[in-house]
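Question (not urgent): is this output format expected?
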Amino acid sequence: MQVNIANSWKNILEKEFEKSYFKDLVEFVKNEYSINTCYPKGVDIFAAFDFCSFNDVKVVILGQDPYHGPNQANGLCFSVKDGNAHPPSLINIFKEISSDLNKAYPKSGNLEKWAKQGVLLLNATLTVRAHEAGSHQKKGWETFTDEVIKQISNNKELVIFLLWGGFAKKKAKLIDKKKHFILESGHPSPLSANRGYWFGNQHFSKTNEILLSKGFKAINW
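Got this back:
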């Protein structure tokens, strides 16, 4: 695995690359990609950072794992490559956007356009073995992505963190609530959404209200 991360993040995270846990993680990922089918493609592992520079981060959405089906994962949480059917969680995200903002349901499930507007779409674990959800958890990725959250919290102000579901909500402890905004709700997965924990959270309009009130441009969701 090449640690080919965008320049704006290199200064922020370079200390992590020298730590033993990260070196072990690199070896693990290299080995996994050499003997198994893994996602996303190697060039897309750090895509979340490529499409959203550190200086541009206004919103952070936290996912857990990349999609583990063929051609789905593109390195941005909840996002799929163009031409792919929308996975269930993404369908529910788009349904909420549609009702919250009175917008048409989007055709493309590729969320690169969000990232380019300052939305960091960060999975806690950046790689996965094909058809095996969670297969690369607890190998070091979470230590790395927790550090990403801490660096954003420490070095920026007025960032909006969208924490969806129990896993993401646990990351609230890494965020300075005096400097940033945290919006929490259930996860958009069908299990949670169908129990009433997702729909109606209005996170997309609330995010834009906060951004506009602080003098930032709203996100075109």
